[in-house]
Design brief:
221 residues, alpha/beta, Rossmann fold, seven-stranded mixed β-sheet, globular
Length: 221
């Protein structure tokens, strides 16, 4: 793969259509400063989420996997002024850094970080009748991806857009004998979607500064 070319084209696109402001740049810098892995989405992927959010006229969004708040900022900015993002993060340290970045971006009024295991929090969102969400972004630990998606469906409405990141894993999903738990997790999701009539879905291959991967994009029927 010509990764150098992919990165150059990715940077070309972002320089035109997905320019990072200081809040986004500072969020990326904060990860290094706080020893958090650089696993955020790219600027172009952030803008892609914004396009989808605008397409479904989303007001309420749910995110699984906050990390440092980079994707959260992209999502929150695309919502209506009275919109809200609930974002779930397992790691307390990550959540603390993310809150600082969200505050610095002036988005505290739009974002609520809930700390804990997503599989524990999601049932409570259902029980508390927080749903429906108009847009759901799943970018958390990969082994339970199919379970996350099933919860997402319970928290969605007709027309809700659900996006799942990192589902191609540099082509490793083709290895049916993989013993990588992350690969297995996304394989289960991808295969489940092939038989799921509750959504209309596709997997988009992605290349660029984040190298080679893919995203599920699904619309609830």
């Amino acid at each position: 793969m010509n990764t150098e070319l992919f990165s150059k084209v990715d940077n070309y696109i972002s320089s035109l259509l997905a320019v990072e402001d200081e809040a986004l740049k500072n969020t990326i810098a904060s990860l290094n400063n706080n020893r958090i892995p650089q696993q955020s989405i790219s600027p172009n992927q952030g803008k892609f989420l914004q396009v989808l959010i605008k397409a479904c006229n989303a007001k309420n969004a749910l995110e699984l996997g906050t990390l440092g708040g980079y994707s959260t900022i992209w999502i929150a900015r695309a919502l209506a002024e009275d919109g809200k993002v609930i974002t779930l993060e397992f790691d307390e340290h990550h959540a603390k850094v993310a809150q600082e970045n969200i505050d610095n971006a002036g988005l505290s009024h739009k974002v609520e970080i809930m700390v804990g295991k997503a599989l524990d929090i999601l049932p409570s969102l259902i029980a508390d009748q927080i749903a429906p969400f108009d847009f759901i972004f799943i970018d958390a630990d990969k082994p339970p991806y199919a379970k996350y998606f099933e919860f997402a469906l319970k928290l969605a409405r007709k027309g809700t857009i659900i996006v799942c990141d990192n589902v191609i894993r540099e082509g490793k999903v083709l290895d049916k004998n993989s013993d990588d738990e992350k690969v297995k997790g996304v394989q289960i999701l991808n295969e489940m979607l092939s038989e799921n009539n509750k959504v209309t879905s596709i997997i988009l291959q992605t290349v660029g500064v984040k190298e080679y991967d893919g995203m599920v994009v699904a619309v609830v029927n």
